[in-house]
Amino acid sequence: MIQPYVCLIEDDAIMGESIVERFRLEGIRTDWFSKANDAKTAIQTNSYGAVISDIRLPDLDGDELYRQLVAQGCTLPPFILMTAYATVEKAVDLLKLGIKDYVTKPFEIASLIQTVQDVLPIDVSPESQTELGVSQAAKNLHRLVPRVAGRASAVLLIGESGVGKEVLARLIHSQARRETATRPFVAVNCGAIAPTIAEAEFFGYEKGAYTGADKVRKGYLEQADGGTLFLDEVGELSPSLQAALLRAIQEKRIRRLGAEHDTHTKFDLICATNRNLSEMVAAKSFREDLYYRINTVTLEVKPLRERPEDVLWLAKRFAASIAERLGEPAKTLHPLSLIRLQTYPWPGNIRELHNRIERACLVSQSNMLMPGEIFPEEPDGTHYPDELPTQEEATLTAYQQVCERLYIEEVLRRHGGRIQETADVLSISRKNLWQKMKRYGIDSKNAGD
Question: What biological process terms from GO does the record include (predicted)?
């Protein structure tokens, strides 16, 4: 994700420092100037997403700076002016001038941040769309990543199984700024480690610590030194391991099995769970002190059924990546498939979506994935007419007619052939539905009305 970059012009040192610090916490990079003429050169040479300027400045008023830049023919980012002397007439004049917005002093910095975020250009680069999705829920998560990456002592990710918690964890890891370019990301599935070897896996061991320990081995916590430790299914940790982990997190050191001295280790901690840890704390199955230690910030990843916009986005990405792996042209999704993908409840979330798309890409002999190939278990899911026009030979009218017929058949099937219910869903009259069924040869007897 490209970090927002703005120009701030404020001659009040206390106010300026306060705004810069808050912008930094919001993930907004800021160039701060106390004089308009100093900022003028920077605005002409840098690609700012917005300019925030006080009106009253020691060398040149903010609105006059804007006028001069416009007169010079400069392509300007949105201008936001801060003023303690706002009147209705002044506000109208500023907006007529071309100023994007203004805020009146004194103001809450939160309101200024919201004003700035509203005018910042939306990042539509490929990097901004590769991890989480295009839904509002995904965008909200994406916006929070720079605020917690490398800054929060611990982040807890909650959500159903398969929603993409590890993808979010890796994004947080990648956004953390560190002096070293290569930082380890150690992912641990806490539910997949046998209790008998859990301590050795987490803390490591010295040579000769036990039978079969023929060499020194670093544990997960030591492997993550300088990077990120991601504990998936953290709710599955045993009580004894919870206690040992709490000590390691608090003291930032561990002791390998068989060692005489502690080893220091420092890492960003990200935990994930599909369980309700607060209920586990109440039931005494998860340590309360560890719970508060690992959830400095909690981020919820919504299930796929609550963000249908991401379903199609992900499905197309999966189809493209699978085609690239197989060395084949990417398959497209039939309109009926698009509809079914968005109406399906996705109990297995993203993991299930990928599985279904991959299977369909492997078995389909066409360049277009039909609903029956993605959902083969559904009744009559594979019985689609052979005369479906291909993308190369279909006229728009012919393609629309086939799609309309297939959709009517699909809705009839889902509603047990009940004509009135189907007509209501399609937002057409019962008579209109009968006419379309007759035109397309859809058997009313088979409809079961």
Answer: phosphorelay signal transduction system; regulation of DNA-templated transcription
